[in-house]
Each structure stands twice: as C-alpha cells, then as structure tokens.
Amino acid sequence: MTDSRYLKRIIVKETVSSSHLPEGTRDLRVYLPPGYNEVLSYPIVYCQDGEDFFNFGRIATIANKMILDDGLEPFIIVGVEVDKSKRTAEYAADGERHAAYVAFFGEELIPFVEGKYPVRREASQRILAGDSLGATVSLHLALTYPKLFQQIISLSGAYYPSSCSIASEAGDLSWLTMYMIVGLQETAYETDRGVYDFVAMNREMKQILTSKNASIRYGEHDGQHVWGFWQRMIPEALQTFIASE
After folding, report:
1. What domains are there in the chain, each with its CATH number?
2. Could you tell me which of 109, 123, 149, 87 has the C-alpha nearest to residue 29?
3. Which residue positions does the secretion signal occupy (predicted)?
4. pLDDT tens, position by position, 43-55
C-alpha cells in the first residue's frame, strides 16, 4: 500500500461538548473521503479507540485505497478518542463510566456529527466499529439505541460475563448485523481483568446473538490480540457494510 494517493487523507480534529461525561468534552478525528462534497451524503463508520484505529489500524489509508481502487462507495469515518486509563470504565458493561459514555454517544455525539457533516441518518448507513472492549461497547450501544445502530464491526470482542448476561436478556435481534472475527491464538490473553480465552468468549456471544435471530458473519482466523491482525481484517469488514459503486 505504497501509492501516494492513499496517503493524501483529509482528517479533521473536532471536540464535542458533553453533559454526560465528567470532563465535559470528547475529542474526535474525522476522515473525509476523496472527492468529499458537502452537497452529497455519505455512510459513516464510528470507531471506538479512534486514535488506534487511525494510527495502528490505518483505517483512513485503507479507506482511501478501497474508494480509489476498489470502487467502494465514499464514506466518512469518525474516530472517538478515549483516555486509556478510563477505557475499561467506559467500555465494559459493568464499568462505572459506561452508562455516561453510552448516553454521550447516542444523545450528544450523533447529533453533533450529523449537524456538522453530510452523513446519512438511517440506521442502515451507520456502522459501529471496535476492537476488544471497543467491540463490546459497540454492541451495548446498539442494544441501547437500536433505532440508531444496527451494524457492528467486532474485532476480537471482549465479551465478559456481564455483556453476555445483557445480551441474553435482549429480545429479538433480527435487526442486528455483525461482522465478528477473533484470532485463533487469542485463547489465553491477559487483560486488566485477568487471563481470558477470547475464542471461547466470541463463540459464546455468537451463539447468544444467533439464538436471537441476529445476522452474524463470523470468522476465526490465525491471529493474536493485536492491531497487526485486526488491520488485515478491516477491508473485509468495510465491504460487509459499505456498497461498491
């Protein structure tokens, strides 16, 4: 991926105010596609761990290549920053800041972005993306706001028992579509909550969601719990939800 066209990316920094988050603001980075035009309208991908998705996942560079060379419809990406020291508190279902973060996302972030950028407002045109606990909070956002979010990219989701319990209590999920992958070498990954078998966790969550009629595109691949693995899967994940022109 050395073509200089892929590296000519438009990325805008934004700060959104929040009455839900204790800090009162949250930083974003917004990728605008080649040929961006405010009179058009675009699908949108919201990434948890925004800085990591851009720096380690190289999602903006991948998007440029897929739009320029592969005929993927142009789309906007919003990377939502996170303070790593508060990440588990915000992303984990039982975290002390989880409810505030979910409310911020659904009630403040979405109106901010949709008020400033020409993004489509149908749930079918919004995609949530996350790695590990970022995938987890993306699922909980969809369960909380099903009219807003119905499509999720889940990269090695950290589906702890609290998340499985919440998903098990959900009703019919035939409206939900997930691209869900995990690495086969993630069977003993050390987290801040202990050592977990991510393959087993993802299999369990897949079973729960499938039993509730969610549409799951599931894959287990050679890979570890690292961005080197997830970056390889981003093109396929994007193609799952964004149409080719």
Report:
1. 4-241 (3.40.50.1820)
2. 109
3. none
4. 999 999 999 999 9
Whether the model pTM is above 0.85: yes
62 residue type, one letter? I
> What sections of the chain are H helices per DSSP?
4-7, 50-55, 59-69, 87-91, 98-104, 110-116, 133-144, 161-168, 198-211, 227-241
Q: What are the C-alpha distances in Å from 29 to residues 79, 113, 122, 162, 185?
A: 5, 11, 22, 30, 31
Instruction: Give the C-alpha separation, 227 to 210, whole Å.
Output: 27
Answer yes or no: are the C-beta atoms of 163 and 205 closer than 8 Å.
yes
Residue 162 burial (10 A CB sphere; 0-12, 13-18, 19+): middle
- Decide: helix, strand or coil at residue 27: strand
DSSP 35-77: T--TTS-B-EEEESSHHHHHHTS-HHHHHHHHHHHS-BPP-EE
SS3 assignment, position 81: coil
User: How far is residue 129's CA from residue 171's CA, in Å, rounded to a whole number?
Assistant: 22
What does the block give as tokens for 16?
């959104």
Q: Is the pLDDT of residue 123 over 70?
A: yes
| C-alpha–C-alpha distance, residues 245 and 207, integer Å | 34
Residue of 85, 99, 11, 1 lying closest to 53 (CA atoms):
11
Alpha-carbon span 207 to 214, nearest angstrom: 10
